[in-house]
Design a protein that fits this description.
This protein is α/β, with parallel strands linked by helices. The protein has ten helices and twelve strands.
Length: 287
């Protein structure tokens, strides 16, 4: 008999493994947040980071929290676009089973997955044969906590024009199945420093300033403009998003869910939390 549960790979290291500890962190992320309530009245999706919760958990948590606050009605499915994929990589999906979280198992939306595999080629993963991936897993405890009845469809998508068609199709397919959706794209921003082989703009505060004021700013502006194509080209040219396909697909899906504007609901870098020669940018977007 094939296993049906995909066990968590990062629980106990990148985020707590126990429900009580996860809930305590989530409550802290919300209560201590300096993020004001979003202007967007009924967000249908967002973009969030996927580093360990110590670095970017507050931003990711608050994006999903505001999606919950605005829910009407509660979504049947949360679609998560993620994975670190280059342009020549195929789409990936686990179409059956469930994902393990500290708050309980998160089932796959198998009906939606089956219809998507009829329309696009996917490299199929299974609960016991898959690539461990933080971009998706780090969001799952938040999703299970705020949307305990929802199912999930996690899609790994590369930064290509075809990915935009996947974003559009998942919305159209869900409508045919009479499923309501929220969508999120998981990406961090500029990875700067020797650890990432990206060191052309100085070091220390000067490098941080360049990342914040120039490199990350450009990719964030593309996100805020809901310009998925510009986001992909910007990231490929300037290395300012590690999962641009995921962010672009979420934006394209969001537009087909009715999104017409976006806003940033938090930005920071790992340098702000723990100064060092190598650091990463993080943003939260709602649309």
């Amino acid at each position: 008999m094939q296993p049906t549960l995909r066990h968590a790979a990062f629980a106990g290291s990148w985020y707590p493994a126990r429900a009580a500890e996860c809930e305590a962190e989530i409550k802290t992320f919300i209560e201590r947040s300096s993020i004001p309530p979003p202007r967007t009245p009924h967000p249908v999706g967002g973009i969030l980071p996927h580093a360990g919760w110590y670095y970017s958990g507050a931003i990711a948590c608050n994006v999903i929290h505001w999606l919950k606050k605005a829910e009407a009605p509660a979504p049947d499915v949360i679609v998560v676009f993620g994975m670190h994929l280059p342009p020549d990589c195929p789409n990936l999906m686990m179409p059956k089973g469930a994902w393990e979280t500290p708050f309980g198992d998160l089932p796959v939306a198998e009906d939606l997955a089956a219809e998507m595999t009829k329309q696009f080629p996917f490299r199929i993963e299974t609960p016991d044969r898959h690539t461990p991936d933080n971009t998706i897993e780090l969001q799952l405890p938040f999703i299970k906590y705020f949307f305990p009845e929802a199912r999930i469809l996690a899609l790994g998508v590369p930064p290509t024009e075809a990915t935009l068609r996947v974003g559009k199709a998942v919305v159209e397919t869900a409508r045919r199945l009479r499923l309501t959706l929220k969508v999120i794209g998981s990406t961090d921003l500029t990875h700067y420093g020797a650890s990432y082989g990206f060191t052309g703009h100085g070091s220390g505060p000067a490098a941080v300033s360049w990342v914040k004021q120039e490199n990350d700013r450009r990719i964030i502006e593309a996100m805020l403009d809901l310009d998925a194509r510009r986001l992909i080209s910007e990231a490929l040219e300037n290395q300012n998003a590690c999962c641009p396909g995921a962010a672009a697909a979420a934006i394209e899906a969001g537009k087909h869910l009715g999104a017409r504007e976006a806003e940033a609901v938090g930005y920071t870098t790992s340098y702000d939390r723990s100064p060092g020669g190598s650091f990463v940018g993080y943003v939260g977007i709602l649309f």
